[in-house]
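Subject: Protein record for review, amino acid sequence with backbone structure tokens
Why sent: The fold of this protein is of interest and is recorded here as tokens.
Notation: Tokens come from a learned vocabulary of local backbone shapes, not from coordinates.
Attached in line: The record itself begins immediately under this heading.
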Amino acid sequence: MTAQPESEPSVRNMFAAPRGGPTVLRILLGAQLRQLREASGITREGAGYAIRSSDSKISRLELGRVGFKERDVSDLLTLYGVLDNDERGPLLALAAEANTPGWWHRYSEVLPGWFEVYVGLEEAAARIRTYEVQFVPGLLQTEDYARAVTVLGHPDASQTEIEQRVALRMRRRKVLTAPAPPHLWAVVDEAALRRPLGGAEAMRGQLRHLVDVTALPNVTLQVLPFDHGGHAAAGGAFSILRFGEPDLPDVVYLEQLTSALYLDKREELDRYLAVMERLCIEAEPVAATTGILKRILSEL
């Protein structure tokens, strides 16, 4: 019997209660396949040849960036010496489950592949830390504010497309009030709170919502004031996602105009974590947030 990776119990746990849908399942299964391949001393090129593909395809599979064909998983398990049905069964079942569309599939017309990954990771995260300089964080936006942001980013989109994008954002927001929700810790530049997107009334509604939502025990909001000057995150907005499953590494998410970067190398994570810690120190304390929001609200 071939020895399984040390993380095999996590496969069973995640399959029994998958959180985050197919995105997380793909990442978890990919990690298992990578461990099995490395333990067998087989290169990505050799694995790719075995499934009539390439080493780049194996790399994407192991990162969970693409869906799995059950036949490919079966062939790879055979190649890696996993022959016992009791060992193969959970992994093949996981491959089938990983191909099940997530709730966000209904928004596929307006959801690019590079952002679909993030939505799945957001659903699975136990902790989300984010810094925003231009906008209120997506998970904290009201419908009117989200519509204004969407129109700004997609000026040529039809009204139907705009409303689909807004509906997607509102659906994502439900993660904060779901059972066992993630803890969201956001640091927001004061400029984002004073920029009246959607007009003064929409911004008043957004600020009132922030006052309300920060009362949730799983939401922490800090404001980085104008008068602070330069700060640690001069490069712009970013998010760090942490997961309850030990097989899922922390991920840094950097959104660009038409794509995104997902960083999970230890040195990259450490650098962004250090920047986030400095931002939390440089920002106004959490206890001051409600007062700041009400003051800005009174000035609109």
User: Anything to note?
Assistant: Residues 1-12, 14-18 have pLDDT under 50 and may be disordered.
